[in-house]
Design brief:
Number of domains: 1
Structural class: alpha/beta
Number of helices: 10
Order of helices and strands: EHHEHEHEHEHEHHEHEH
Number of strands: 8
Strand content: 5-15%
CATH class: Alpha Beta
CATH topology: TIM Barrel
Radius of gyration: 18 Å
Shape: globular
């Protein structure tokens, strides 16, 4: 497995901020153009898709272009990256202008889950080479179960300890901490691999906390991302029920800006 490596580079200018549209999925299902327009008006720089609401890639690209937004990722199931589907997935994302193909969820069924995670790692290594000529990268997004040890080793470490540096580690700060993982430790352990990261608040005492109101060590996260992490996009995702979804993602962006002021 890879070891911690230090880096003395100075922090960069704060990075662009995207929104994972899963945060406002009900609004998207009712009115995708109106929702995207509202997200742009809030001041987001881009969006990450988790579904396309029966729109073509061409129509989605026009919608983004019309509102000055970039596509900062797609959450795409592993089956869409199969040998049979990969060419179509690459073409769809090329049209979107997206280079980040992120698998949002994997589980390890069967009698030997550790071996299943190693097979996932092997497949990610193959995929990384297949998409590289197209200027794209593949990666995996964290959930709480990724940090439950199997024979003393977390699935997250099995996966990223056995994949090349070209496979993106998309940490979700809340999901990671909910599973007992430490996003700071993983940013240090696998430097250069956090090209995109989901910034979402976690609180042990306040289930409705949004960015800046909980336990995430934001200053340390941002410094690591902007030095050793090689991060290109911060992506806000908010799934709590304290506010209507569009209100919540607006508040998250405002709180993020306060943290960076």
């Amino acid at each position: 497995m890879q070891e911690d490596r230090g880096n003395t580079a100075k922090a960069k200018t704060p990075l662009p901020v995207g929104l994972q549209l899963y945060s406002v999925r009900a609004d998207c299902a009712r009115d995708l153009p109106g929702t995207v327009a509202a997200v742009a008006k809030m001041g987001y720089d881009g969006v990450e898709f988790a579904g396309y609401y029966e729109y073509s890639a061409q129509d989605l690209r026009k919608l983004l272009d019309d509102h000055g937004l970039k596509c900062c990722g797609t959450h795409t199931a592993m089956e869409t990256l199969s040998d049979e589907n990969l060419e179509a997935t690459i073409e769809f994302n090329r049209t979107l202008g997206n280079k980040y193909l992120i698998v949002p969820w994997l589980t390890a069924e069967g009698p030997n889950p550790a071996e299943t995670w190693r097979r996932y790692a092997d497949r990610f290594n193959v995929l990384a080479e297949k998409v590289k000529p197209h200027g794209m990268v593949v990666g995996y997004h964290s959930h709480a179960h990724d940090f439950t040890p199997i024979d003393g080793v977390m699935p997250w470490d099995i996966l990223f300890g056995n994949t090349s540096k070209d496979v993106v580690m998309q940490i979700d700060t809340c999901n990671t901490m909910s599973g007992g993982g430490d996003p700071v430790a993983f940013l240090k352990r696998y430097p250069g691999r956090s090209l995109t990261i989901h910034i979402k608040e976690y609180s042990a005492t306040n289930p409705n906390a949004i960015i800046g109101e909980g336990d995430v060590k934001w200053d340390e996260i941002f410094t690591l991302c902007e030095t050793i992490g090689n991060t290109r996009w911060y992506i806000i995702e908010e799934e709590k029920d304290a506010y209507p979804p569009l209100t919540a993602v607006d508040l998250c962006l405002k709180n993020y800006r306060k943290l960076r002021a």
